[in-house]
């Protein structure tokens, strides 16, 4: 039973780190685009 919780926790942690990384990339791309438009 605990193995299932470990797998769910590992998956959620990986998904969170992936979403966090994607958010940073999107933010930097948006800043670059905004600077180019000025």
Textual characterization of the structure:
The structure is a single chain. With about 40 residues, this protein is mainly α. The chain is about 95% helix and about 0% strand. The longest helix is centred in the middle third of the chain and has 36 residues. It is rod-shaped. The mean pLDDT is about 90.
Number of strands: 0
Secondary structure: helix percent: over 70%
- Elements, N to C (H/E): H
Mean pLDDT: 92
Low-confidence stretches: none
Largest sheet: none
Counted by DSSP, the helix tally is: 1
- Identify the quaternary structure here: single chain
Strand content: under 5%
What is the radius of gyration computed over CA atoms, rounded to a whole number of angstroms? 17 Å
User: Looking at the structure, what is the overall shape?
Assistant: rod-shaped
Which structural class do the helices and strands define? mainly alpha
Distance separating the two termini: 56 Å
């Amino acid at each position: 039973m605990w193995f299932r919780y470990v797998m769910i926790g590992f998956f959620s942690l990986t998904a969170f780190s992936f979403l966090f990384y994607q958010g940073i990339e999107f933010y930097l791309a948006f800043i670059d685009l905004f600077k180019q438009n000025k």
